[in-house]
Amino acid sequence: KKMIVLFLIDTSGSMNQRTALGTTLLDTAKAAVESFIKLRARDPVRARTERYFLVTHGEGWSAVKAGWSQPPGVFTSELKTLCARDVTRQGPALKTCFELLNLFRLQTAIDNYGQGRLPWYIDPAAIVSISDGSPTTASAGTTESVSFTPDADPGNELTAEPFRWDQRLFHIVLKLSGTATVPAPPGKDGSSMAAMCDVTGGKAFTATSQKALQMALEAICSRMHVGVAVTFEPIPLNPAQPRPHVPPAPGSAHRMLLVRPNKKGHFTGNWPLPEAFWPGSIDTLPPRTAHPIIHFSQEESEPIVLDTLPFDKYEIEPCPVTQFVLQQRKPNVCYFAYVRNSHKQPGLGKPFGYVKASSSNNSVHLLVMAYDFPTLHLLLQQLIKMYKLSPPKSWLLHFEQYLASVPSYYLAQLSTLLKQRLGPAAVQLFPDMLDASLKFSISAYLTKLKGQSKIKTDKTMQLINQAAMRRAGVLPEED
Length: 479
What we know:
Radius of gyration: 25 Å
Oligomer: single chain
Order of helices and strands: EHHEEHHHEEEEHEHEEEEHEEEHHHH
Structural class: alpha/beta
């Protein structure tokens, strides 16, 4: 799985300040990028599967120095020739970064809107921003805020935030000795960027020395895993059933589910994470949160494994939730996981998997299965062990009721897998014409967005390429 590493370099005039070593802050930022790439190159597999983009604080799409259409050598040459002559545009520059990363997502349907989220079908990216922390320059003066309003581009309304669950932001503020610091209110220095880092699952660093800068680069390298960010929220305990010796479980926002390749090096999966709405009850897609909210039960349950169906397993990065689970020292229990409003009856919904410690109790995983797997498990146990694959009408009626209670985007995969494992006996379990598609109005809208996105993308790529040709002297500079 290729990962995009996008370097956002502050090219404002304040980056011409000199450090105690006599180099400018921009020189320090360039050296940091080169050092970062060398750190990543220690792993030859990682070095082959990463692509580097370069964006500055320049205006508009001219800020993109190396992106989708530029060959790898352009990145190195553009990095070397960067000059600090822009104004600080932290918010607009970050907006450009997200728009650049999201250019092709509607065309590839990688976000799978309306049909569940696929953790293995992603386009992982990390933005590494390096700046001196100066406030953004705006027409009304300077501002510490990095908030921005997305343009009315095709599909922007489908996700509430400008970023996606496989994109993270890291930020390094250079506060090296020998440089003048920009006055800022106490506690405000870099706080807006730090908050943006937090909500993407990334982190902000302040480097006050070359050693601290190197440590920040190494820390970012160690956190750059292929995966997706989710938010875990515990389901409140029933007050009528207190657990005096067990503290309540904490929540954990914007935490990574690590996505690993299989033995052949491929990223595959079987089951989506459910949408936070019932597909049959809507005519237009509601906006998603970039990170799905997974509610997990604090009640201990016995792990269920469907012998006839596969499951997907994702390690959860260390966080308060994993710490809580490991502290219980009970690797033989699990905590059911839900996405609220994913069922036809509004509310908590049915479980789609569970959180569980490994058998050695040193890591915690989210296991993702078929929707409402406890009911399916019981039905399949009856079908195989009790009815020997020849069920009575009463069982078929119960199975039909189960299918009607499952989000439609699960049905095609469920049908395929059961037919693979049960053979001809599974054919009778599903209707001849299995309707697992989106409503026509939604499907037509997504097709329309795909076309509009291609027009937008082609125009954007043209603007980026024209700016590159102007820098190379092939085209004259704009008046």
